[in-house]
Structure formats: structure tokens, C-alpha cells
Amino acid sequence: MTSDSDMPDARTLDRIEAEAVDWLIRQRGDMSERDWLDFTAWLERDPLHGEAYDRMVEADLDLEAIAISGGLQAANEDESDDEVIGTPLSRRGWFAGAGMAAAALILGILFWPADAGPDWERHQTLAGETKTIELDGGITIAMNGGTRLELDRDEGPLVRLAAGEASFSIRSDRPSSLRVEAGTLSMTDRGTVFDVIQDDAGTRVAVAEGAVLIDPAGKGAQVALTAGEAFAFDRATGVGRRSAVAATGVTGWQHGALQYSDAALATVARDLARNIGAPVELEQNLAGRRFTGTIRLRDDPVETMSETAGLIGATATRTDGRWRLSAE
Amino acid sequence: MLLNNRATLLRFLIARLGNAEEAEDALQEAWLKLESAAPPGPIAQPLPYLFRLCENAARDARRSAARRAARESRWAERDADWSDGEAATISPEQIAEGRDQLARLERRLLALPERTRAIFIAFRIDGASQSAIADRHAISVSAVQKHLQRAYRLVAEVQAEENSRTDAGSGSA
User: Fold this and answer.
1) A190, A72, A185, A87: which is closest to A137 by C-alpha?
2) From its phi and psi, is residue B62 left (phi > 0), alpha (psi between -120 and 50) or beta?
3) Three-class SS of residue A82?
4) What is the per-residue pLDDT for B168?
């Protein structure tokens, strides 16, 4: 890199970048009018400030994508040299991957005696529990709470999602032929991440990365979905609909974030029920309402439900362990 | 509401985007959004809300420019326009290259201490406050900020390397 006498020195650039990150972090919270005017003043002071800020916005997008798809969670030796003040709290939730997987192993993989026919493994999670299954071919299955699936490792592999939600991630150099439910999904590229929900209403598939071919009715009529696309098959009407989703939100449930864009509240209620492990009903006065936004899943379902109620403009009440949302 | 504050917001957008033309466009976008998706009920603080709309419009403007510059192949899939229901024309090469870029970044990020990554997830994905995060780990808020700084600065560094690699046209990997 050629040196240029007009270029600020490394220390100045360093300071500018640190300030840009500070502003980005500040913007995640509430900004007062004064804060915004200060931000304007900072931007006006030097064009390099705005450029640095743009770079941090870009960094933020990539970080979010990688974090939501679980890319930040591998363990390694903790080299942090932070000064310790006080006593750390120990609450699960932020190391969800490690903690919950351990609990799931104890509650376990249940094997039924083999019937005549394929040798199925059956996997089940209780409400609020999650489990990860690794298969050959770089396939990882993450099961959400209240999920039942059957699996034949040799045939494809073949996964039948009986109920609940599972995210599939395939990292492989070769195309994989994983079959899920009634359809055939064949991966066409190196890395594929998608999520499938199977409930009373039907089947939903959403793709976070890569491309997936689905055959919704099992008749050989294939639909191609790529990242940022979803397909919902309505069991009652037999109608399938394609829609756009935020690719980064598709496996968001693994990190406590459910993203919706103009979704029916009934869908939100069903997803909430699966994630908090308790029934969630909608009052008639909420029928027909749509929701756009992100729901955070907190450790305490009460917090989750009260935040959600606030977001959609409703009140949440719980009776005998069943939740009900009704318009304010 | 928007008219009263137009001058203030325009000044912000000019500082944010670096030129008046883009600033005017972004302000227009913000206004359209305000008209089409009016929030339910009164807003507690109108001006911060308007600033936020403008900031989002500014980010959209940058995204569009980056897409046009064809530099952001890793977002080709995510940003493709699905509105007409047809598959966007993204080549498999673009998809593969985009995925490779993110994979490289992910590998670099895994070198960060586990705590740094956990703090980032808590802050950015879980929406925890910096003080809550500080309490949990029994460290100061400024220590939390240092962790966040580390994560963002590393990503910016890797992105700069990727961009200069793209600019130079060299395919060394």
C-alpha cells in the first residue's frame, strides 16, 4: 500500500473505527434527540467518520447472519483477561447449544423395537427442550421443543418429521440426498441450511442458505427454494404458497429470535407454543391480524409472553398453564 | 410532523450519506415509509423515531449501492428481489462465492475467545443490555464494550481484506 501524506495515521483510523463501533452499539438501544444530534455532529466532523460507520454497519450484518445460524458457538479456551467484579450469575440461555444438548442426551433417544420395514430411529424432545443429531455427510439436525421425528440413516438419509420443528444444516463437498417428510430435498450446493415446521396446519419449509428442491405433495412436482424463500403447505386446503423471509431469521429459534414478516397471528401463536412448551390461544378479537417483527424467546415464558403481547398490542393471560392472547 | 423537522433530518442525512442528492432521496424514502406504515397510536418521541426512519433509509441506500457495485456477492441470495414470485437470477457461482466469503469470515471469528462471542450473541441477538451482560459475567460495562469492539473490528478487518482482494482481481486463497 502506497503511503499518502493526506492519509490519517493508524492511530487516528483506530480511534475513528472505535468511535464508529460505539455509535453502532448505541443505536441498538434507545437514542434520545440529543443522541441523534450528537451523532449528526460526529458525522459532520470528518467524512471518514461516516465511511467507518458504513463499514461497521456491514460488519454488523455479517455478524448477525453468522450468529443467527449458530456459527459463533464453538467452544474454545477462554482467554479473556477481564477483571472480575462481583459474582457471576449462572443462568442458562446464552450457551443454549451446549447446555440444552447435554440435557437432551440424558432424556434421550428412544428406540422402539424394529418393526418389519425400515430400521427407524425415533427421536423426541419434550416441550422447551432441544436436541442436535449429527448424521454422516455433514448433516446436522437441530430439533426444537415438542418435536418428534423418525430417522433412517442409511436410506438417503430419510427423516420423517412427525410433529414440531427441526432445522437442517448440510455442509458437504458433494450434493446430498436427504429426504424429509413426504418430499425429496436434494442439495445443490456446498452448504445448505433450512428449517421445517410440521404442525396441525401443515408443513412449512424456509431456507437460510443454499438451495433446496421440495416436492410438497410427493408427486414429483418440484419447487425450488433458495435462501430467503419459504414454502408453506396448508393441510386443510391442499394449497402451497411461496413467500419471502429473512434468510438470517430462518433458524433464529436456536438463538431465541423468531422473525416474522406479515405473518398471521395464528402462525405466531403456534410457533410460540412450540417454543415455550405451553398452549397459546388467540381470542377471536385478534383474528385476521398480521404481525411483522421479531419475538425474543426469554428463559422465562412469562417474560416472552408479556413482551410478545406488548409487541402485538394485546394482553396475555395464563390459566392452568394455558396462555391466551386477546386484543387490548 | 416530518415537515417541521425536515431541515434537521436532511442535515443528518447529508452528513450520513456524504451528499445532498442521496440525502434527499433517502428523506423521500423515509417519508414514504412514514405514510404507508404509520405506527399504531401516538409516538412518545417523534423526532428520534423520525431519525430512526432516516437512518434505516440511509442503510437501504448504501445496500442498493453495494448491490449495484456487485461487490456484495455474499448477500446476493439474501437481497434478491422475490417480490414478483420468480426466482432471481443469481448464478451458482455467485452463491458459492458468497457462501465461501461468509465461511472464511466465520472461521476467523471462531478464533475469538468464547466469551467475546457469547457477549456478542447476548447483546446483538438476545437483545440483552450491556449492564445485564456485565452482571452475568461479573465484569464492568466497559469490559463488555471492549468485547463488542473486538468482534466488530475483526469483521471490519476481514471485510476490508476481502474487498481489496476483489478489487485487485487476484484469486489467491
Assistant:
1) A190
2) alpha
3) coil
4) 66
As a whole number of angstroms, the distance between CA A262 and CA A288 comes to: 11
Q: Of A122, A133, A186, A112, which Cα lies nearest the Cα of A156?
A: A186
What does the pLDDT read at residue B18?
94
Among partner residues B16, B124, B149, which is closest to A43 by beta-carbon distance?
A: B16
b (16+ CB within 10 A) / e for B47-63: bbebbbbbbebbbebbb
What's the one-letter identity of residue B118? A
Query: Distance (Å) from the C-alpha of residue B150 to the closest C-alpha of chain A?
Result: 9
Q: How far apart are the first and last CA of chain B?
A: 53
**DSSP string covering B1-58:** -TTTTHHHHHHHHHHHHSSHHHHHHHHHHHHHHHHHSPPSS--S-HHHHHHHHHHHHH
**Which position has the higher pLDDT, A107 or A261?**
A261
Interface list for A 125-144 with B (CB within 8 A): none
pLDDT band at A80 (very low <50, low <70, confident <90, very high): low
Residues of B in contact with A24 (CB under 8 A): 152
d(CA A269, CA A283): 11
Higher per-residue pLDDT: B10 or A278: B10
Indicate the burial class of A117 (C-beta count within 10 angstroms; 0-12, 13-18, 19 or more). Answer: exposed
For chain B, say whether A218 makes contact (Cβ under 8 Å).
Answer: no
Give the model's pLDDT for residue A259.
84
B47 near B77, Cβ under 8 Å? no
Do A145 and A274 touch, CB atoms closer than 8 A?
A: yes
pTM: 0.51
**Cβ-based neighbours of B153, under 8 Å, separated by 6 or more:** A17, A18, A21
Quick one: pLDDT band at residue B68, thresholds 50, 70, 90? Answer: low
**Are the C-beta atoms of B88 and B80 separated by less than 8 Å?**
yes
- Stated as kind and residue range, the H or E segment containing A226 is strand A223-226
| A28-A31-A36 Cα angle (round to 5) | 115
